[in-house]
């Protein structure tokens, strides 16, 4: 009688082929702004931070990296639009590659989540709208104080193509710096999300109104970048159900599906899949500011994520509030191919090993998330001293 073998359960330590990359495990470093790139130039501190989190066959996504000189909304965020930045990133990418990891650069423009102090000549930040972010949210200023978000300036229709071009050039720069690919940050209330969400986008031109129009900007960016560097080196991040920085939509599932449908079509047109789609779990609305998100997975959000996962034709990555157990569960249930970890990876540089050993985790210190010290709260979190365990990866 033929023996029936159950398929092997997929875990965080099952290998995965992501586009042309062979990953040895599925614990991904989530993109995280850490404000340590002094004056926009990534230096040795970043090399240390990223190599600490590198593993053979691992996958890292950098912090949001600025595509132009109007893109910043935090102090000391690295850019990838100047030659000096490209040269500086090369050293970091080389160091990560030497440790065996794959690394993508997250391309970022904050749009209205900025302030005149971050803008060239003190101008107004750009957005889909003239409406500012409400007082519920505060912006971190270069002197460490918090301010209110100013009134942005809605981009003129003809200006949008220049911003698309900024993304395209930044993607080419990232490849020139040696990155394995890029992630387009279309999430969390920043520029591309400001066009996607009907709670923000009040435009009357071809970039506002219908879902089709609201998706236009991000799709133009994805298409321009994919055409320039190849779809298989492009990941896309969205957060249809996250209200971070007032980014509300009246129909998060409909919006998420609309993006998924368009990405699927683009993949057909380009005859290549994108590297992945990265979706933030709704439960972590206020990840940057508070602990108000709750771990766990209630029915509504599970439905949203599962529906997007089911409809997207390609690699699907989840992020937001995952513990080791929830990550294992999501993979075993087929809800994701990869899981990205943020805060736990801040305070556990050897998170992959700790998960493997099911070892205790170090708690992160929120107060040093966005400070500038190149070591404290950045590269001084402890590794497990268990050397025999370390050799297992
Ligand atoms: C300090 C900090 C900075 C972050 N910066 C970014 C960023 O630059 N780009 C981005 O897409 N998400 C950013 N995030 C969100 C993370 O990628 C991640 O989705 C979030 O922390 C939830 O995952 P976690 O529960 O594992 O921390 C940031 C989160 C934190 C805590």
From TrEMBL:
Which residue intervals define the domain NADH:flavin oxidoreductase/NADH oxidase N-terminal in the entry?
Answer: 12-359
What Gene3D superfamilies does the record tag this protein with? Aldolase class I (3.20.20.70)
Gene Ontology cellular component list: peroxisome
NADP among the record's keywords? yes
Domain of life of the organism encoding this protein: Eukaryota
What keywords tag this UniProt record? Flavoprotein, FMN, NADP, Oxidoreductase
Q: What cofactor requirement does the entry state?
A: FMN
Q: What GO terms are given for molecular function?
A: 12-oxophytodienoate reductase activity; FMN binding
Report the leader peptide range: none
Listed InterPro entries: Aldolase_TIM, OxRdtase_FMN_N, Oye-like
Quick one: a GO biological-process term for this protein? jasmonic acid biosynthetic process
Q: Does the keyword Oxidoreductase apply?
A: yes
Its family?
Answer: Belongs to the NADH:flavin oxidoreductase/NADH oxidase family.
- The name of this protein is NADH:flavin oxidoreductase/NADH oxidase N-terminal domain-containing protein
């Amino acid at each position: 009688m033929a023996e029936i073998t159950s398929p092997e359960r997929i875990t965080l330590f099952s290998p995965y082929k992501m586009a042309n990359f062979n990953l040895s495990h599925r614990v991904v470093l989530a993109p995280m702004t850490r404000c340590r790139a002094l004056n926009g130039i990534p230096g040795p501190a970043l090399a240390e931070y990223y190599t600490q989190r590198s593993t053979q066959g691992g996958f890292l996504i950098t912090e949001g990296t600025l595509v132009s000189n109007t893109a910043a909304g935090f102090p000391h965020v690295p850019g990838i639009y100047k030659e000096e930045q490209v040269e500086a990133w090369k050293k970091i990418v080389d160091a990560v590659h030497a440790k065996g990891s794959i690394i993508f650069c997250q391309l970022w423009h904050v749009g209205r989540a900025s302030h005149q102090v971050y803008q060239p000549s003190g101008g107004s930040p750009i957005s889909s709208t003239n409406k500012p972010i409400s007082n519920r949210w505060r912006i971190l200023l270069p002197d460490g104080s918090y301010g209110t978000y100013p009134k942005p300036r809605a981009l003129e229709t003809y200006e949008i193509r220049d911003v698309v071009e900024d993304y395209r050039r930044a993607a080419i720069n990232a490849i020139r710096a040696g990155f394995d690919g890029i992630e387009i940050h279309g999430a969390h209330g920043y520029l591309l999300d400001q066009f996607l969400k009907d709670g923000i986008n009040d435009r009357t031109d071809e970039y506002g109104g219908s879902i089709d129009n609201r998706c236009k900007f991000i799709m133009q960016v994805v298409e321009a970048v994919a055409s320039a560097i190849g779809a298989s080196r492009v990941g896309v991040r969205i957060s249809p159900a996250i209200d971070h920085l007032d980014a509300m939509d009246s129909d998060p599932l409909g919006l998420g599906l609309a993006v998924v449908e368009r990405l699927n079509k683009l993949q057909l047109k380009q005859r290549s899949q994108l590297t992945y789609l990265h979706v933030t779990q709704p439960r972590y609305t206020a990840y940057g500011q508070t602990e108000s998100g709750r771990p766990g997975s209630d029915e509504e959000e599970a439905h949203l994520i599962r529906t997007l996962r089911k409809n997207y034709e390609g690699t699907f990555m989840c992020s937001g509030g995952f513990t080791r157990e929830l990550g294992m569960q999501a993979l075993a249930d087929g809800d994701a191919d990869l899981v990205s970890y943020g805060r736990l990876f801040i305070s556990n540089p050897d998170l992959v090993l700790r998960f493997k050993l099911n070892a205790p985790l170090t708690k992160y210190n929120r107060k040093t998330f966005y400070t500038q010290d190149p070591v404290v709260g950045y590269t001084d979190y402890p590794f497990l001293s268990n050397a025999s365990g370390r050799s297992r990866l």
